[in-house]
Amino acid sequence: MPTRRRPDAVVLPLDDLPVGVAVSVACGDRRITVVRCGPDEVRALDGDCTHAAGPTAQGTVDGCLLACPWHGAVFDVRTGEVHRGPARKPLATYPTRVEDGWAVVVLSAQDETVDGEPEVARG
User: Fold this and answer.
1) Which residue, 95, 70, 102, 98, is CA-closest to 80?
2) From residue 1, how far is each of 46, 73, 110, 122 by CA, in Å?
3) What's the predicted TM-score (pTM) here?
4) Fewer C-beta neighbours within 10 Å, C or N terminus of the chain?
């Protein structure tokens, strides 16, 4: 999947993000899960479950709920809040927006120094 990297964001083609599918984006040593909940709704959150660091992008999506594949913890991708345990801590979320057919995931200032292009893998 092609991506573009800006100093403040990762940008993915909206057409390459099917509704209801989680996608993993690696930026340096950080893994981010991107989920398209609806035609113009894209959300992004930490790629590691807060319970046991399971890869959230390999989980199942039901609307705006994401279930970790390892132990079934369920998170609301809009807020990162735990919907069902065993996780107790919410996942960190990243601001997102849709611009001209692209999903934009805004990264923190510390990510501006990350070398290289993000690697993208389907969950």
Assistant:
1) 95
2) 20, 28, 25, 9
3) 0.81
4) N
